[in-house]
Amino acid sequence: MGTINFLVCACIFFTMQLNAQTNFCGIKNSSTQHGEEITYTIFYSLAGAHVNAGTTTFSNKLEKFNGRTVYHVTGVGGSNAKYDWIYKVRDRYESYIDTQTMQPLKFFRDVNEGNTKKMETVTFNHVSNTATNETGTYRVPSCVQDVLSTIYYSRNIDFEKYKKGDKIPFQMFLENQVYDLYIRYLGKEDVKTKYGKFNAIKFKVLLIPGTIFKGGEEMVVWVSDDQNHVPVRIESQIMVGSIKVDMTSYKNLRYSLSVMQKKKK
């Protein structure tokens, strides 16, 4: 579940309480657009040395799905080829999100991590509150999200409503069950990247335990403090060593990164 947890951390960022249904359901998109593409480099560290371990890219396209206009979002991640002999990763996640409600209609994943291979397609019915995959039909909460839909939904949340230390819970369907997760808001902080210094929102993420990531609040995320709410850095301890994930390229953002503090010449 290594890449699952990375995608979760890169996707869940921040989310409203699910019991506040009038606030959580039916949010309008104001942060992303057709053609957006963001790429991250994953650095692995052991004893202070960082190596380029892999990349992951998120993209967003407008399409039609069962007569509805949807955002077809894709997350593709892979290990650096020269380290495949240690642990090879080739993962693909897709979600079809209704543009009017920002709710997932269909989710697909093709996971190849070491000796683990999984393929799954989930269809969501938001009338009956069910999720159906190859193994059966499962009851899910109203406004439940999948791994990828969470990023695009949560990027539209108003974070000015929270104070430092607040827990912000949400629910996500994965592997035939609903996970009760949360992020802990840590306030605002500047973070240095290859593009310069960003004004950022900072928080910790409650992780799903797996083969690479520990459970608990082991992951710290910084996202741009502007209308894009783009994650610019992620850091986490893992079973052996740690990782740092940095945004290394982007295109077709809905807004310019206006909070970016330029490097001094």
Q: How would you describe this structure to a colleague?
A:
With 265 residues, the chain is mainly β. It has one domain (2-261). Helix content is 8%, strand content 53%. It has 3 helices and 15 strands. It is globular. The N and C termini lie far apart (42 Å). The model is unreliable at 1-5 and 7-23 (pLDDT under 50).
Mean pLDDT: 82
Main β-sheet: number of strands, strand sense, barrel status? 15 strands, antiparallel
CA-atom Rg in angstroms: 18 Å
Calculate the terminal CA-CA distance, rounded to whole Å.
42 Å
Number of strands: 15
Secondary structural class: mainly beta
Number of helix segments?
3
Blueprint of the fold:
Blueprint: H1 2-12, H2 21-24, E1 37-46, E2 49-65, E3 68-79, E4 90-98, E5 104-113, E6 116-125, E7 130-133, E8 136-139, H3 149-154, E9 167-174, E10 177-193, E11 196-207, E12 216-224, E13 231-237, E14 242-251, E15 260-261
Antiparallel strand pairs: 1-2, 1-14, 2-3, 3-4, 4-5, 5-6, 6-7, 7-8, 9-10, 10-11, 11-12, 11-15, 12-13, 13-14
